[in-house]
Amino acid sequence: MEINMKTPCHDLTEHSHQSLPLEVQKLLQSTVNDSNFDISLPMIIQQDMINFTIATKDRTSIPNSWTELLSKPFYTIDNIVLINQHTMNEFTLLRLTLAFNNVNFTKEFETELTLRDYIDVQVKEFITQALNDGIVTVSNVWPEQNEISFMLNTTTNKTVLMQHIQTWNISTLPSIDVFGRKLSLVNTSVEHSYNSMCHVNCHQIDDQHGCNKVPGCHWDIYSQGICTNNSLIPERIKATVSLPCLGLYSNQTFSEDDVIKQFNDLLMNDIPSLDKTMMQISMVQGDKSRLYYKEELLPFLCQRSGGIYDS
Omega before 21 cis (within 30°)? Predict the structure, then answer.
């Protein structure tokens, strides 16, 4: 009797998992609880699969009771999930990616602070219309560059759902609306996932594709490329701050870097929740007339307001 077990959460080629085949044999032996139980060698080990054949030591036929005992959908050994492919060939989630022409969501988020929530609603309406299936749920909607990726779940057969999506005709699919602008869908891709069974630490994933496949994990391009469940997003508020009483124009000992650092430290002290990687501060110096105005009139204004003007 051939057994195929998938390990969706671990790479079996890693050195730390070399003892797993022996552990699997012990587990199945204890499950069957029969001294006549045997596993014919060799076990074929691939990156996420173990293939082997069970047999009786006396080479008699395998009892029906063994088949029943070994029909459990999945097993766990030292936090490693093993899925029995004969009884559980159904994955747990689908990851769908929609690609569009002439759009860069990452760039648009910088100026549209409500766009992310708007797209979330649009994606759910898209799935409702495209699948006409009220029991499919959408989660982890993540727009980036020219793509929107998200997870799909259903209580019905996920394999059938995946096959249906793979037969989509792009020209007949509903459009995605962005504040009244209809986006042109150019490609769809779907892949299955077992990740809802895996307890994954996002920070342990070191490649962008693998990171984005895990529900709740995203590749954070604003933190020098790390995988995290708390990624920084491009939405931002631009503000101009005038500091008239610091004497920045008359005191030549100030450098632009000094001023930016002091202002940055001031913000971090007053608003501890700010992230340094999300702040881009630059100085803008006015023309000569504005500079003259600042030099001549601001000492009086700063004294009246109780500020300190360094001349």
Answer: no
Tokens 């002091």 belong to 262
Residues in CB range of 165: below 8 A, 6 or more apart: 94, 96, 131, 188, 190
Question: Which amino acid would we find at residue 290?
Answer: R
Neighbours of 135 (CB within 10 A): 10
> What token pair was written down for 143?
């727009």
The upper half-sphere exposure of residue 238, i.e. CA atoms within 13 Å in the direction of its Cβ, equals 6
Residue/partner pairs of 275-278 with CB below 8 Å, 24 or more apart: 275/232, 277/222, 277/223, 277/232, 278/222, 278/232, 278/236
Cβ atoms of residues 220 and 231 within 8 Å:
yes
Question: Which residues on neighbouring strands pair with residue 94, listed in sequence order?
Answer: 152, 192
Tell me the pLDDT of the chain (311 aa) as tens digits. 788 887 777 777 775 666 777 788 788 888 888 888 888 777 787 777 888 888 888 888 888 888 877 777 777 777 677 877 665 556 778 899 999 998 999 999 888 888 999 999 999 999 999 987 668 899 989 999 999 999 998 877 788 888 899 999 999 999 888 888 899 899 999 987 776 677 778 888 888 877 877 778 888 877 667 888 887 788 877 777 666 665 555 555 667 777 777 777 877 787 777 666 556 666 655 443 333 333 444 444 455 444 433 33
Q: Are 1 and 62 in contact (CB under 8 A)?
A: yes
Contact residues for 274 (Cβ-Cβ < 8 A; gap 6+): 267, 268
Phi then psi for residue 221, to 5 deg, are: -75, -15
Contacts of 288 (CB under 8 A, 6+ apart): none
Q: Which residues partner with 228 through β-bridges?
A: 218
Locate the domains of the chain by residue range: 2-84, 93-228, 239-311
Task: Evaluate the CA torsion angle 229, 233, 239, 241 in order and state its sign.
Answer: positive
> Which pTM value belongs to this model?
0.63
